[in-house]
Predict the 3D structure of the following.
Amino acid sequence: MKNLFLLILFMISIITKVTFADSLDEAINNSDRTPLFAERDIYRNPKETLQFFGIKNDMSVIELWPSRGWYSEILEPYLSSEGKFLAADFDPNYASWTPKVIKRNTENRAKSKLLSNMKMITLYIDDTPLERKESVDMVLTFRNLHNWLKAGLLMDVFRKSYDVLKPGGIFGVVEHRAIPGTSVEDMNKSGYVTEELAIEYAERAGFVFIGSSEINSNPKDTKLHPKGVWTLPPTLRLGEEDREKYIEIGESDRMTLKFIKAK
């Protein structure tokens, strides 16, 4: 009977390890993370980025467009014990390619050992609220602004993010950073967005800009590539052409911006 009791305790501890993470370090270093995701930590600096945004494990947090779940694999275990994590996925009507991408991302997330309990909501392109008004502590988005800008939806996404946040809530943005003065046309082609435009749109939505960080900067990135940001890892759209050159550059130069919904 004693051995059975100990076995049950051991199994509970394993389940807890897979589902919850007591600290940000534990969530990031979790051996159940997708190995290919963990390899990108050197470029994406998840600990420093999330600490800059001021995340705490008892917060309610929405991640916009989680894609395959790179950040979700960290956020879900970190927040699930004391906080709440929601992932706002694509609207199927966003574009002609959206259903295919939703299917791909859903299948990829289903393979993750850490995302089986993740709650999904939908970021609709109509007037549907993102979630109940003033109901969450933080909204985060990673490398998505260029998609919304090109579709003419960036202002809508920022306003929905503002509405769902509690007074004093944080809006955290990581995005490929364009050369200052880049035209919107060139941003749409390249996938890089200027800090000036990101801040302007956020402030128009009602946010107050707190500050920026160079955590995710990459001085090797000239931003002048044949296939825009997708020339670089992890996409490497040119295939074998100059592959080592772009691997040496690494992932894109990125801005990391922090906004607040004033009380």
